[in-house]
Amino acid sequence: ANMFCARAGARWARLPVCMGPSNRLTHIGVAMHGRLCYMSTQQHQPKDEHAKQTQANNIAATLEELGKTFRTKFLKHPQDKQPPTPPPKPPPQSVFIPSHNAPSNMDPVVGGPNVRADASSTTPLFNPRSTPPTMDPTLTTTQPPAHHTSTTSKTPTHHDSMAHSLHSRRYHNMDLSEMLLKHTNEHRHQLVDLPTTDPYDIFTNSEIRLSEVDVYGFDYDYTLAHYSDKVQDLIYDKALEYLIGELKYPPELRGRKFDPSFSIRGIHFDIQKGLLLKIDFLNNIQTGAVYFGRRALTKEEISEAYGTRQLRKLYVDSYLRPMSDIFCLPEACLISDVVQFLSDNNSTFAAHIIYEDVVRAVNKVHRDGSLHGAIVADLPKYLTKNPQLTPFFIKLREAGKKLFLLTNSPYGFANCGMQYLLHDSLPKGVTHWTQLFDVIITQCEKPNFFARGRPFRWLDVKTGKLFWDRITTFRPGDVYVGGSLGEFMKITGWKGDRVLYFGDHLFTDLMEPSIREGWRTGVIIKELETEVDIQNSSEYRTMLCDLLNVEELIHKTQFYEGEEKDEVLRYLKKVRYDLRQALKEPFNQNFGSVFRTHTNATMFAYSLQRFADLYTSRIDNVVNCPLDFSFYPVRNYLPHEFKLN
Hints:
This protein has 645 residues and is α/β, with parallel strands linked by helices. The protein is built from 19 helices and 22 strands. The longest helix has 26 residues, at 49-74. The radius of gyration is 30 Å and the shape is globular.
């Protein structure tokens, strides 16, 4: 076979020749982490069927070789949230191309995310800190090859004119091989030196001026109180014990433990089919993120279950239950463990009953005091101190801002936590944390608080007695129970758009006050730091760039014709599948990122944009923000708009 040598930076690649099925000169360039591999052939007319078959085998073998190289390189991804150190630049040497031992089946399942090719014997194909490769200028010409017939040598038909106009407008009359080469040459980027995102930043969906905010409100759990992950284990264990002891679930379930790596917030449970699934804001199901118990469903099983990948809004509203806060993680894990156990033992069950029982068990743990008692008994184990909270509250009060606490937790539990968090840093003249707040509402029963709610009642914190007197004013430092949003706004006289309220649950805490009273809202999303760190890594950025390049190549290649096009498309789609899986797994092996599916924003991220003005990973990030600071959202691009990056 002819051999073609292409210079790639400081290296030389020696690749086998590949003849296209149409016996035309073919140059195929594929971006691999900034490096380019080329398959080059010369025009040749086979003399017999044996030559044709050899030709086809050469194509398949070359695609398989490159496919293994892609899997070896692409399926390495960061396993922790620290951006990895780029490898040192190696000395000039030959690029290693794997031997002919890749699977011949081009189905995405073969060689998919669970297959790890041994890369120990390969030379790295990309150094993120190296200079972009300089290509031979003879390979990047946009002129048609000499063997092509000129389009002006004949009178074009109407169909030919349309096709010529389309191709010349988009690809300058280039054939498929030239388009692939030109595209890969134009998309070589140095990603490692691009700016990174601060994981502790405050992100904004709408313009908001803090100088116009007069009132700051806070939830308690996972907002002011930053819990350790051990709380999830506690919730799971106590809820499972309730299922077995009170609801008479099989005792064989005992001994199972919470798996923090299984689920993410923002997924949904289908109470009709018993499936945990991840959907985007258009109700599209993300393949590879649908689970029955602990078993992932294949694309074929998803199609059999739903008949389509895009669910009807009526179905979503009727049967899908969102799991949107941190407390939902043990809930999702427990549902899956129960479903898997019953399925393994061939027990019949109704999915909605399992869901209702687990939700009932988790709610019972929150309300019966067992969870709160365990946390209070060992606060250092479950609660992380925050020395910046007290200075933040003092800063707000000195600026004339009003402060309120609005939580579903009972006063006794919140009081123990707030004393642990604040009392070591209280200023002179302040003897108790309640003196820092103008209004304190506990056991408010959100989201019912935002609808009709209940009357406010004053709580005597010394005796625990509730009084029935009608509340017409809130006294600073006093504690109140129950109430409703309408009554709250009437008593305080505060204007909705001058209130900024922080919580951790998008729907329970923030959606209703945003809609009903126009409160400005901020969401605390603990997972944000890890997600941003992963996106900052050079490996993730490189794979993302490669994915976007491959998808653009797929788009352009479809305008061509012939078997050659089909071979290229089949290979590019396989690469696209592998890259998508590699980009998903660093966030969560099962469900991926909290904020996006392969293509779109998740339903959770879409709701975040609708109902949250600000979002950040912890309340500490707001402390250093100037009180006259203005937040401006970044420009969101529509699909048809030019993206200036």
